C-alpha cells in the first residue's frame, strides 16, 4: 500500500483556512539555498534539481537498489523558507522579489539516511546534469512550535492570509521567534488556476 502524505499527515499538509497551532517534528530534506526572484529561470532549475533527487530516491528499486526500510510512497511537495536580505531589512526597503532570500526543499521519507541521500545525489547528477546539483544538501530541520494556515489563491495575495495569522498571534499572545516563514506548495502552478492554488503558510513561534 502506497504511503500518501496527503492522507497520513493531514495535520501538517492539509490545514484549514484558519490559523492552527501545531508542533512540527524533525524532518529530513534535500535543500537548496538561494536569493532573488522565484519567477526566474534559475529558481526553476533549482526546483528541477530538487525534484530530480527526490524522484531518484523514489525510483531506487527500479535501478536495482532497495534501501533498508523502503516503502512505496508519493513524493512530498516542494517547500520553502522565505525572508528578505539583511540589506533590505536594514534599509527598510519596500518589498522587492529581487531581495528575497530562500531555502527551498523537498522532504524525504524516514528511511533516507545521509549516506543514501549523498549516494543518490552522485548517481542522479551523472544521469541528469544540472549546474544546481552541486548546491543540493541533505539536512534535518525541526520547525517545532508553529502556527499555520491554508492560503487559497495566487502567491501574490498571501499578504491577506498573513494578516489573519498576525491578528491571531496578537489575540492569543503568540510571538514569532524568527522573521522568516515556511510555505508548502500543494498545487502545481503549471496546472492550476491562480485563484485555486493552495499553499500552506507557517510561522515559527516562541516556545
From TrEMBL:
Positions in coiled-coil regions: none
Taxonomy, superkingdom: Bacteria
InterPro entries assigned: GyrI-like (IPR029442), GyrI-like_CCH_Lin2189-like (IPR008319), Reg_factor_effector_dom_sf (IPR011256)
SUPFAM superfamilies (UniProt xref): Probable bacterial effector-binding domain
Positions of the GyrI-like small molecule binding domain: 18-199
Xref: Pfam families: GyrI-like
The protein, known as: GyrI-like small molecule binding domain-containing protein
Organism: Candidatus Enterococcus dunnyi
Amino acid at each position: 500500500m502506497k504511503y500518501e502524505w496527503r492522507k497520513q499527515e493531514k495535520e501538517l499538509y492539509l490545514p484549514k483556512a484558519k490559523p492552527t497551532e501545531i508542533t512540527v517534528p524533525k524532518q529530513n530534506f534535500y535543500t537548496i539555498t538561494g536569493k532573488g526572484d522565484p519567477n526566474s529561470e534559475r529558481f526553476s532549475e533549482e526546483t528541477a534539481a530538487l525534484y530530480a533527487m527526490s524522484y531518484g530516491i523514489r525510483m531506487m528499486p527500479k535501478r536495482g537498489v532497495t534501501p533498508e526500510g523502503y516503502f512505496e510512497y508519493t513524493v512530498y511537495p516542494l517547500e520553502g523558507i522565505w525572508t528578505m536580505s539583511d540589506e533590505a531589512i536594514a534599509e527598510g526597503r519596500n518589498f522587492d522579489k529581487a531581495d528575497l532570500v530562500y531555502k527551498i526543499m523537498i522532504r524525504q521519507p524516514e528511511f533516507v539516511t545521509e549516506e543514501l541521500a549523498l549516494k543518490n545525489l552522485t548517481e542522479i547528477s551523472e544521469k541528469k546534469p544540472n549546474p544546481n546539483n552541486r548546491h543540493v544538501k541533505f539536512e534535518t530541520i525541526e520547525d517545532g512550535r508553529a502556527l499555520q494556515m491554508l492560503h487559497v489563491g495566487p502567491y501574490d495575495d498571501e499578504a491577506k492570509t498573513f494578516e489573519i495569522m498576525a491578528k491571531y498571534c496578537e489575540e492569543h499572545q503568540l510571538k514569532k521567534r524568527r522573521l522568516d516563514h515556511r510555505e508548502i506548495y500543494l498545487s502545481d502552478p503549471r496546472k492550476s488556476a491562480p485563484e485555486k492554488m493552495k499553499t500552506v503558510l507557517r510561522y515559527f513561534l516562541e516556545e
